Amino acid sequence: MYYLGIRYVRKSARGDLSETKRGIQFLRPEERAHVSRGSLLLRMELRSNPEMLCVVRNAVGELTAKLGFSEPDCRAVVRAVDEALTNIIRHAYLGDPDRPIDASFHRIDAPKDGQSGDALEIVLEDNGVTANPEKMCGRALEDIRPGGLGLHFIRECMDTVEFTRNNGRNQLRLVKFLNVQAPQKGS
Question: Looking at the domain assignment, is residue 184 inside a domain?
């Protein structure tokens, strides 16, 4: 079991982020969620070599399409995973191309708006440098320059983003709810 120490939850329709700080919610130990181990769809053990990102992007794109995500949601999940892996390579492993990264993809039932919703859960794990939550705020969008928007893209693309360090490993949990549109009559 993995205990998650930091959680980001996308703004609700009401725009309520009262329990968050800089878009990241810090959980007390009794509130920590357990990473689901149900319905494993895909598991990847890869190296922190940036040349492998295209392989991961293709696999994630295929997986999300097979699950029934819309094209924009497929692109969003691919972008979030790509940005997260790039951050692991750059910041946790300081560019070392031969360090391990574990990625697992599960189909889960997760709480959504007081009910249960079908979702894709992605857990990325590495043994790199411990991330500093104070530095995980990204930069202002108005500050126009290259880089520094990865966290913004991840938060915008995913419904839930949770980070922790447990047993010497960084763990990032991303969740995207599946919003399957019913087919229209006559199509």
Answer: no
